[in-house]
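Hi support team,

I'm filing this because I wasn't sure whether my run with adenosine-5-diphosphoribose finished correctly. The job status page said complete, but I'd like someone to confirm that the output block is well-formed before I use it downstream. Pasting the exact inputs I used:
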Amino acid sequence: MIKNDSSLRTRVAIIGGGPSGLLLSQLLERAGVETVVLERKSREYVLSRIRAGVLESGMVELLREAGAGQRMDREGLVHEGIYLARANRGFRIDFRRHTGNSVMVYGQTELTRDLYQARDAMDANIVHEVEQVEIHAAQSPNPYVSFRHDGRECRLESDFVVGCDGFHGISRKTIDSSVLREFERVYPFGWLGLLSQTPPVSEELIYASHERGFALCSMRNPQLSRYYLQVPLEDSVEKWSDEAFWDELKRRIPAEAAETLVTGASIEKSIAPLRSFVAEPMRWGRLFLCGDAAHIVPPTGAKGLNLAASDVFYLSQALLRHYHDNDDSGLDDYSATALARVWKAERFSWSMTRLLHRFPEQSEFDLRMQQAEIDYLETSVAAQASLAENYVGLPY
Ligand code: APR
Ligand code: PHB
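And here is everything the job wrote out:
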């Protein structure tokens, strides 16, 4: 609700218009709770970012519940397994067999576009290109956010503020340093990603461990492929021509796949560092954190976006209980509930990263441990079931 030119009042002020902020806004507004979303960038910029593309079944359900799942259901690809490969051998982890469940391959960029459309259809209040966002009085019953927009100083008053502003956002930094604890592991390599208008090499994702480094074959749709190579942190994108990328990928994946790989010009190429990070607590007074604002996982387990969805699920339920039933127990439990799931996904992402990458400091003993673990996975139903259970997503 607009109070006057530059002062607004809403129930839930959401900072950040990425997947976390948009999904939270959508779920709350559908249940009659008013929100305002403040986003630093333009919509075009947000929609130009290429991110991950594997959705757990819990997230798929949540998007349907939010009324934003129609295109995903039409165009998304249901995957019932992945391949793990090392040197020239590959084996399959069968999700359906071990969990009765599957995942959906659907790009985060498309999903964000769908969420914007769903928000537009409800006349959402999303303010783009805001600057100098600051959260105030988070420990009081009347928190507010100040920001600049169109050259004016603005103020957004609210009952609650939710930080959905990603790893580099300001929300987490608002929490008093005597309370905030941060846990971090930075990995000594990055992922070089390439997107190309070519048919995927395999119907299912291939995670390949190789002495030259890890490689991943993924996809966005039957005509759009996404591939990744483990590269040293010092490498720059300019150093990697498309040709060099394809040559290296062919070396790291099984020969059978390399022979059928269709190559083409890259549409996008970028290097991302790998990091594990968790901030505790995820609540400070009337400020709540969701998604990348509170935690980062290395992409090896495909968990980043899915963790954002489970945070949003817990927080939306808690806020609805507050508004509809006058019950604050969900809000009081939010941080502990969300973190319990976050840490398990951190563990899985870290273990997949450790299992499949070459580390600079790795000894011969460490290499043998990796090989033994992959051997164990290839031959043990219990080990496969554990990987499958985590990959399709632990229950909310
Ligand atoms: N004020 C307003 N908006 C901000 C600010 C700020 N100070 N700082 C950052 N933002 C915006 C960013 O521009 C971005 O659009 O917050 C948004 C955060 O979006 P994401 O980084 O995509 O984070 P999130 O919505 O939590 O999405 C989950 O998990 O692993 C990842 O790739 C996955 O990006 C996905 C994320
Ligand atoms: C992707 O398609 O971008 C992708 C898929 C699986 C991962 C990471 C990234 O584990």
